[in-house]
Structure formats: C-alpha cells, structure tokens
Design a protein that fits this description.
The longest helix is centred in the N-terminal third of the chain and has 74 residues. It contains twelve helices and six strands. By secondary structure, the chain is an alpha+beta fold. The N and C termini lie far apart (98 Å). The chain has two domains: 76 residues; 260 residues, Muramoyl-pentapeptide Carboxypeptidase, domain 2 (2-Layer Sandwich). Helix 3 crosses helix 4 and helix 6 crosses helix 7. The strands form two sheets. Strands 3-4-6-5 form a four-stranded antiparallel beta sheet.
Length: 344
C-alpha cells in the first residue's frame, strides 16, 4: 500500500474513533440529565412531605410559645396599683401611702380571677378564662372617668374636677351621670322603693373629717383605740382613697329601712330595697362596689348600700361574673396586653 493511502487510512480511522468518543460523551450527558430529572421527580413528594412536617412542627412550637406567654401575662398582670399616678414620683408617693394598708387589701392576678370565676361557674380554668375574655366589653378606655379606680392601693393626690348635679336629698354628685342616676331612682320608685341618697360626692378634706368622726364614734361606743382604728379602716376610706371623691359613688338606703331607724349597716342587705338594688342596679350602670367575700380585693368590708357608676356594659359584666371593679380592670389590661403582642 502506498504511503498516501496509509495516511488516508489513518486519518479515517482517527475520525471514526473521535466520532465514537463524542457519541459516547453525548449519551452519557443525556443519561445523566435524564437520571437526575427522574430522581428529582421521584424525590419531590418526599421533599414536600418533609416541608409540610417542618411547617407543622414550627406552627406547633409557635402555639406552645403563645400559650406560655399568655399564661405568663395572666400571672403577672394584677388588679391595678397606683393607677392614678402620672409620674414615677407620684407612684412612689402612692406606694408609701399604700404600705400602711398592706393588711387590708391585696393584689390579685388575672389567673387568680379566672380561678375564682371557674369555681363559681363550675368550669375548668381554661374555659373560664376563655369565657371571661369573650364576654369582656371591647375597647374599654381605662382612662375614662367612669372607670377611675380609687382605693387604698390607688389613692388620689388631687381633687377630681367635675360639674355637679343634686340628688333628691340635696347631696351633690357628678353631673355627667345625671341621666343614669335619675333612671335608677325612678325605676326603684316604680318598683315600690324610695331610695334616699345618704352620701354622694365628698372632697378629700371632708372625707378626712369623716374618718375622724367615725373613729371617735367607735371610741364613744366603748371600743378600745385599737379596735376603733380597725373598724374605721374597715368601713371608712382614708381621705385620699375614697371613691366618693369622684362623684360617681352613692350611699343609698330605702325609706322602709330608714323609717325604722336603720342606718348604714350590713343588716340593710336583707331589706327589699337593698335586694332590688342588688338585682337591678347594673342595668342602669351601677355596681355594688364592696360585695361580700371580696374584702381583700376592694380593701373594705361588705357595704350593701354603696354603689358606683361604671356604665351599663361594664356593670352588667361585673354583676354577671360576680367580680369587682379592680378585677374588671385587671381583665381589661390583660386583654390589651394580649392584643399588643398579637396574642388575642
């Protein structure tokens, strides 16, 4: 074979070999791509399932954290303290004032409140809490005058300012609630009860004298100085801690009671007019402010004659769950905290 023919043969052979190698490479690339797509397709459901499981686990974890935070807030948010303070200095002054009455009044957490309501309604605590929050009036402005809390943990530093109206006995009260006052007095009359307003608005100075008069009165009845002081603390609000200063509180007695010499006494609770008040006052926006069994919450003994205006919606809620203004405000503050943290 000639040299030229050998060269042609070699070139042809090399070309065939190269073509074969390129074909193999193309096949390998195509096979790899197809296999990868197959694996991706095969594994796709598994990946989706894993993602869903991870999302479910994360959601469950978030729910647990939310419930834990709710429980924490329920234990830390309590009946209000120093709610009338506008500065840290005022809060400090109020704390100093309240220290003298540590045995008379305690704070109660939202959890405590739910526990007590659960016992009344014969529910578990979780169900009671849910019901309390569901029925709680919405958008309550705790800074509104009708919700102002005045007690031994929430004293006043200055006199509240208001316009006055006058009760049937001539006692002055906050004119802002004239309609509510009139409606209640008229309803009682229609039911056959004439209510006499024994006391309504009092200034801080007047209350200071009232406290001293009460103390001297107990001494005159033969009580020791210590006993007289204890009785005075139980039934007479300190000058700065009387909600009569708001003009929203009333001491009411039915004339069937005063007509036989009855006065501001727990025995009044058995009188028909007192029972009518207990059953109907909430429908006109008033609550029995110092109920029996709540002495450590309010700081005062049971007073079946003492009513306070808070508005119809709040009054009906408070009466329904047998709680106090202190407890109502704690629940409102709890609801607000939940909303602020996106937990409502």
């Amino acid at each position: 074979m000639s040299k030229i023919n050998m060269n042609h043969f070699n070139k042809a052979y090399i070309a065939i070999v190269l073509a074969f190698i390129l074909a193999l490479a193309a096949y390998d690339i195509s096979y790899s791509k197809t296999n990868a797509e197959t694996e991706t397709t095969t594994n796709q459901p598994t990946d989706t399932k894993t993602t869903e499981e991870s999302a479910s686990a994360a959601s469950s974890d978030d729910e647990e954290k939310a419930e834990a935070r709710k429980a924490e807030l329920a234990e830390t948010i309590t009946t209000p303290v120093a709610s009338n303070a506008t500065t840290d200095e005022e809060a400090s002054q109020m704390a100093e004032f309240s220290a003298d009455y540590a045995d008379d009044i305690q704070t109660y957490s939202v959890k405590d409140i739910a526990t007590n309501v659960a016992a009344i309604l014969e529910l578990d605590e979780t169900a009671a809490m849910a019901q309390l929050l569901t029925d709680l009036p919405k958008e309550v402005d705790v800074d509104s005058a009708q919700y102002q809390l005045v007690n031994k943990l929430n004293p006043l530093l200055t006199e509240p300012v208001m316009d006055f109206a006058y009760a049937n006995s001539g006692k002055e009260y906050n004119a802002a609630i004239t309609d509510a006052y009139t409606a209640l007095i008229d309803a009682a009359a229609s039911a056959g009860y004439t209510l006499s307003t024994i006391s309504a608005h009092r200034t801080i100075a007047y209350q200071a004298q009232n406290v001293e008069n009460g103390f001297q009165g107990y001494l005159a009845q033969g009580y020791s100085e210590s006993e007289a002081r204890d009785l005075t603390n139980a039934y007479f609000a300190p000058a700065e801690a009387s909600e009569h200063s708001t003009g929203l509180a009333f001491d009411w007695l039915g004339t069937e009671w005063t007509g036989i010499g009855g006065s501001l006494d727990e025995a009044y609770a058995d009188q028909p007019s007192a029972q009518w008040l207990s059953e109907n006052a909430q429908d006109y926006g008033f609550i029995l402010r110092y109920p029996q069994g709540k002495e450590q919450v309010t700081g005062y003994s049971f007073e079946p004659w003492h009513y306070r205006y808070v508005g119809v919606e709040a009054a009906q809620y408070i009466a329904q769950y047998e709680i106090t203004l202190e407890e109502f405000l704690a629940l409102v503050n709890y609801q607000t905290a939940l909303a602020e943290e996106g937990l409502a």
